[in-house]
Amino acid sequence: MKIASWNVNSLNVRMPHLAQWLRDAQPDIVALQETKLDDERFPDSELASLGYRSVFCGQKTYNGVALLSRVPFASECITAIPDFDDPQKRVLAATVGDIRIVDLYVVNGESVGSAKFEYKLRWLDAVREWLRADLVRFPNLVVLGDFNIAPDDRDVHDPKRWREKILCSTPERDALRSLLALGLHDSFRLFNDEAGHHSWWDYRLQAFQRNWGLRIDLVLLSDALKARATAAGIDTVPRGWERPSDHTPVWVQID
User: Fold this and answer.
1) Which of the residues are catalytic?
2) Tens digit of pLDDT for each residue in 152-161?
3) Which residue of 47, 160, 167, 168 lies most exposed, with the fewest beta carbons within 10 A?
4) How many CB atoms lie within 10 A of CB 145?
5) How far is Cα 16 from Cα 230, in angstroms, rounded to an integer?
6) Can you give the pLDDT at residue 157?
7) Residues 155-192: tens digit of each pLDDT
8) Could you tell me if 216 and 199 are in contact, meaning their C-beta atoms sit under 8 angstroms apart?
């Protein structure tokens, strides 16, 4: 089973790219972020014609998450962090077979020390407590999406320039480590320890061509699924297409 994540940065704009990538990459389950569509406009019929069932939770212009699967979802679907009051559509959880999938579009945080930064840290605290409980209920757990955090300096094209900046600050990295401490594993790092691999590049300054990027899109696996992982990677091809998302898909293969 191939499980992938992609921040499409507007599904309305990127639907042709998503359709092409689904045909080329043949993933079994895909988590999307930043769909930027209210639910009435989600292209579930078009995705069904490509062989994918959909569950989604969106809002106009901002945020929005979705899960696509070649096999049916269980009936339960979670569209908000339990016991956390938040109008933003940033989380989606559903079960496929014996695997629980949690799709996250983590708050950006704007700048270190800002009100949005403090909101990001509170949001991550709430997610941690939610996942702590879910790991008890669902030992086969995948948590994936746009985390808006580069885990360590290997994931940053210029660590000195980004040091203690948003996406790379110590509080954000500590919050991510607290998620991993629950018993989750960065699937990419199970197979690749090297620096220089990124999943997001700014649209400016030819950042993609220069590989001036960050690895902020992650697929985290529970202990049970870590033992079943056979490969993981970053598919940079769609980032080179015309009018691309600023992110590119990341994926893991589960036996």
Assistant:
1) 105, 146
2) 999 999 999 9
3) 160
4) 27
5) 29
6) 98
7) 999 999 999 999 999 999 999 999 999 999 999 999 99
8) yes
Total residues belonging to the chain:
255
Cβ contact 32:65 at 8 Å = yes
Q: Give which of 61, 62, 66, 2 is closest to 33, Cα–Cα.
A: 66
Nearest alpha-carbon partner for 106 in 131, 124, 94, 92? 124
To the question of pTM greater than 0.85 for the whole model, the response is: yes
φ/ψ of 59, rounded to 5, equals -150, 150
> How distant, in Å, are the alpha carbons of 35, 182, 246 from that of 120?
20, 19, 21
Cα atoms in the Cβ-side hemisphere of radius 13 Å centred on 173: 16
Q: How many CB atoms sit inside 10 A of residue 34's CB?
A: 24
DSSP 130-191: HHHHHHHH-SSEEEEEE-S---SGGGBS-HHHHTTSTTT-HHHHHHHHHHHTTTEEEHHHHH
Q: Of 146, 149, 186, give the one whose Cα is nearest residue 165.
A: 149
Q: Which residues pair with residue 104 across a beta bridge?
A: 91, 145
Instruction: Name the residue type at position 177.
Output: R
pLDDT of residue 83: 94
